Inverse folding.
């Protein structure tokens, strides 16, 4: 009976030990799975952050390329405006009728508003010569010179919608 009790106690202790080992293994497996899950989630977060950083970098680079293209277009537009302003001034001068009186040394700055095709909507002296007849004659000549020369590229028209030029007869 005593041997049976000892045997039962040993079996019970073995079962408890096996149960504890099983519980410890399960706990270790759960901890390992939790660590692996956390590591996997961390890796996913880091990957997502890298991808987000790459997207942001690509957006910054695209914005810089667009800005550089706009600056290049602006430079080309300024060069075109400069060259066409001279052509416009020459065409206005060809259509200008000299007013009576002494005009030596007179000059003015004219602001012209255009529509596509070069037709003049408005011509206005914004820096007067001091001689009203001279100023009005330049405004009339500007309107009469329509259509004014413009570049063939329709994208450039926005730079020519409103422009100013210096008018001095004989320049």
């Amino acid at each position: 009976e005593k041997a049976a009790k000892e045997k039962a106690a040993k079996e019970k202790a073995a079962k408890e030990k096996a149960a504890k080992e099983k519980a410890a293994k399960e706990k270790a497996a759960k901890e390992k799975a939790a660590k692996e899950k956390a590591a996997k989630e961390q890796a996913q977060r880091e990957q997502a952050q890298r991808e987000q950083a790459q997207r942001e970098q690509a957006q910054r680079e695209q914005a810089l390329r667009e800005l550089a293209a706009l600056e290049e277009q602006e430079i080309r537009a300024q060069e075109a405006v400069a060259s066409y302003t001279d052509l416009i001034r020459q065409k206005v001068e060809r259509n200008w009728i000299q007013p009576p009186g002494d005009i030596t040394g007179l000059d003015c700055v004219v602001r012209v508003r255009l529509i596509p095709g070069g037709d003049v909507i408005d011509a206005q002296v914004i820096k007067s010569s001091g001689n009203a007849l001279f100023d009005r004659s330049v405004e009339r000549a500007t309107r009469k010179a329509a259509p004014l020369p413009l570049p063939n590229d329709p994208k450039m028209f926005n730079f020519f919608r409103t422009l100013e030029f210096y008018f001095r007869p004989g320049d």
